[in-house]
Amino acid sequence: MTAVPPQVARLQHHFAEALPELALPSEAASTPDPRIVVLNEPLAADLGLDPAELRTPEGVGLLTGTVVPEGATPVAQAYAGHQFGGFARLGDGRALLMGELVDAHGRLRDLHLKGSGRTPFARGGDGFAALGPMLREYVVSEAMHALGIPTTRSLAVVATGRLVHREEPLPGAVLARIAESHLRVGTVQLARATGDVDLLRRVADHAIERHHPEAAGAASPYLALYRAVVSAQARLVARWMLVGFVHGVMNTDNMTLSGETIDYGPCAFLDAFDPTIVFSSIDHGGRYAYAQQPAAGEWNLARLAEALLPLFDDDEDRAIALATEALASFRAEYGAAWSAGMRAKLGLAVDDARADDLFAPLLDLLRDSHVDHTSFWRALATAARGDAEPVRGLFLDLPGLDSWLAQWRALGPDPDAMDRVNPLHIPRNHLVEEALDAAATGDLAPLEDLLAAVRSPYRAVAGLERYAEPPPADFGRYRTFCGT
User: Fold this and answer.
1) Local structure of residue 235 (DSSP, 8 states)
2) What is the spatial distance between Cα 202 and Cα 211, in angstroms, rounded to a whole number?
3) How many CB atoms lie within 10 A of CB 245?
4) Which 8-state DSSP code applies to residue 28?
5) How far is the C-alpha of 286 from the C-alpha of 267, rounded, in Å?
6) For residue range 155-192, what is the model confidence (pLDDT) as tens digits?
7) Quick check: 92 and 76 in contact, CB under 8 A?
8) What is the distance between the alpha carbons of residues 329 and 301, in angstroms, rounded to a whole number?
9) What is the DSSP string of 157-222?
10) Distance (Å, rounded) from C-alpha 138 to C-alpha 123?
11) Is 41:47 a contact under the CB 8 Å cutoff?
């Protein structure tokens, strides 16, 4: 491992210095033949990084962890988590926190690598990542950012020149990820599990400093922190539901304290509307199905409350009562965010409660006719402009739809407002697979086209019309894998 001159990247180390018990120094594995597959140049510039410098051998080394800035110490972060309901002590088994960067707006951002090799938390894994899943995270996180949904960002995917052995040998890669931080519900859970209340307090203080500084001035700062996380997560999950995003693995170690979406493993977007849909190959019981996501988020936040109890009040019964009251706000905040979003999608004022009676009948119609979720909303805007035939062509129950349309039109929907919030382009599952398959052979054109489409979610892109179309009839039932 060699050192990067300071002009390539100046890293800070707030997490490692504040919480050394949760920051285990570790080194990246060597990369036999590193090659940048995709580099997010606008994001690099926003982080104060020169894209040309990142393409040099030293810059590529920074993106793979094999070349470290002077004075920096990459660390693997320790955390715990409930994984499909079972508690385990975990940690970054194949990832490194290189440190923090200050972006152009003065905000602190983590530079974090995924697939950089084994750490002491590897638990028998090889520590590597395959190119396909890393490109999936790049594409989907860029789409979420363009949709205005809080998310980690992808700075680069670098092919390592190493084969990764899964069901078959696959090209290896490292993802360089940017986040407000990688503090998770599971970070707090691990601190609580140690029995060290001082460590728990320092984790909470670090979260307040990084993400929720307004809590510091509250009469009960740790309860204020908890309420802030509950609110952020309620709004985040509501936004997932409105665009048809299915995270796939909502374990507590995959829920951030910042309210960002993190860890795009077995994720996907709805094609046909189906509340019970599961895309993850390992979610056999449907724990994280599309319609279960609000309940999963609330369950995770209950676990966060349990972990924070000693900071709420010295009296455990009083602490539990405070936590229960704070958690109860999740459903109200989620419901308000989702309802406002649905009104906007329907082209109505976000405070127009007259629309609320339309929601449940509409979702039933969508489910019963297996209507493509994304296409429906754009066709509905066409109906608002006077032509209902495109949307009628999506449904089996035409009398039911016509009755619903009459009630909706009576409220005066604004089709232009609808087109500003209902995406034309999402990372459609068949297009993601097409792009990943092509990239594995060295053909990046489909990936570049897909990125161009999802970065323009609300407007058509000339030459990319098929990126707004539903999947072909023979696409079949989609399954995704976590990549480990």
Assistant:
1) H
2) 14
3) 25
4) P
5) 14
6) 999 999 999 998 889 999 999 999 999 999 999 999 99
7) yes
8) 11
9) EEEEEEEEESSSEEEEEEEEEEES---BHHHHHHHHHTT-HHHHHHHHHHHHHHT-GGGGGSSSHH
10) 26
11) no
Please choose, from the candidates 126, 21, 39, the residue with its C-alpha nearest in 3D space to the C-alpha of residue 76.
21
Active site residues: 253
Q: Stretch 87-96: mean pLDDT, rounded?
A: 94
Residue where the block lists tokens 């007259």? 354
CA neighbor of 65 nearest in space, from 155, 187, 150: 155
Q: Which residues of 22-47 are buried (b: 16+ CB within 10 A; e: fewer)?
A: bbbebbbbebeebebbbbbbebbebb
The predicted model scores a pTM of 0.95
By the 10 Å C-beta count (0-12 exposed, 13-18 middle, 19+ buried), 161 is classed as middle
> Reduced to 3 states, what is the DSSP secondary structure of residue 322?
helix
Separation of CA 136 from chain center: 12
User: What's the full length of the chain, in residues?
Assistant: 484
Q: Over 70: is that where the pLDDT of 100 sits?
A: yes
Using alpha carbons only, how large is the chain's radius of gyration in Å?
Answer: 23
**Residues 6+ positions from 184 with CB-CB distance below 8 Å:** 79, 81, 252, 253, 254, 255, 256, 257, 262
Q: How far apart are CA 263 and CA 248, in angstroms?
A: 10
Helix (H, G, I), strand (E, B) or coil at 123: coil
